[in-house]
Amino acid sequence: MENILLVEDDLNLIDGLEYSLNKNGFSVDIARTVREAFSFCADRKYDLLILDLTLPDGMGFEICKRVRLTSTVPIIFLTASDEEVNVVMGLDIGGDDYITKPFKLNELIARIKALLRRSNAFQKETSAVSSNGITIEFMNNRALKNGQALELTVSEFKLLSLLMQNPNITLTRTGILDKLWDGDGDFIDDNTLSVYVRRLRRKIEDNPDHPQILLTVRGIGYKWNVVK
Fold first, then answer.
1. What is the pLDDT of residue 193?
2. Which residues in this protein are found as 4-aspartylphosphate (predicted)?
3. pLDDT score at 188
């Protein structure tokens, strides 16, 4: 049974979410504040986090930032319609997906299952690949730059893996989304992919504003350019 931490302070929403998640075979812990979430994360390992953006004692961003210091656990943000401007920030600091309130419970369940599939069933054909000073050790589920471990989210790691396994080949945006997000175009859009690419560049490029290895091919997609 996969463990989920739900961080939400709306009691009416909590009841529906907890029931639906349990019905779909998930074990659920409920935290209603940032402080409670920190306590749960310190005591237990989770397979996925669902974080409301606005909480009584702070923001879901705070939880995400702390979790990302040590973990690549998938994170979904819950956001109100007037908070969508914060979505890019949430993805930038390590979130993997978001859903806007009000939402249908079956849509959230579908997104959770898709994200867990990506996290648990991303198959690797080789033990390691290296280029441009970057090495991916698939068995250890980690990436290194010049021998130093990179702090990558699940989605960043998978995007980097896909690109590096297809060196000097232009991958279409649609193809990347199909590979990494199960082809569920209703769940992840083009803008989200752009955020992941920008965030990954900040971690692997010497000068992210003038990328040399993760290139944009205008109107098509992206290419891993092997330069050394």
1. 86
2. 52
3. 56
Residue 222 tokens, joined: 């992206």
Q: What is the pLDDT of residue 124?
A: 44
Q: Name the residue among 58, 57, 56, 61 with its Cα closest to residue 78.
A: 61
Q: Is the peptide bond before 102 cis (omega within 30 degrees of 0)?
A: yes
Helix (H, G, I), strand (E, B) or coil at 80: strand
What whole-number distance in Å separates Cα of residue 31 and Cα of residue 24? 20
Q: How far apart are CA 93 and CA 84, in angstroms?
A: 15
Q: Which two tokens stand for residue 202?
A: 């900040």
CB 33 within 8 A of CB 56: yes
| Number of residues that make up the chain | 228
- Which amino acid would we find at residue 114? A
Report DSSP letters for 159-199, one per residue.
Answer: HHHHHHTSBT-EEEHHHHHHHHSTT-TTTS-HHHHHHHHHH
| Tally of CB atoms within 10 A around 148 | 7
CA dist 200 and 68 (Å) reads 14
Q: In the chain, helix, strand, coil percent, each to 5? A: 40, 25, 35
Q: Number of helices (H) and strands (E), helices first, in the chain?
A: 8, 14
Mean pLDDT by 10 residues, the chain (228 residues): 94 93 96 96 92 94 89 88 74 86 91 83 62 86 90 87 90 84 52 88 95 94 89
| Tokens matching residue 227 | 């330069």
Q: Report the pLDDT value the prediction gives residue 116, as an integer from 0 to 100.
A: 87
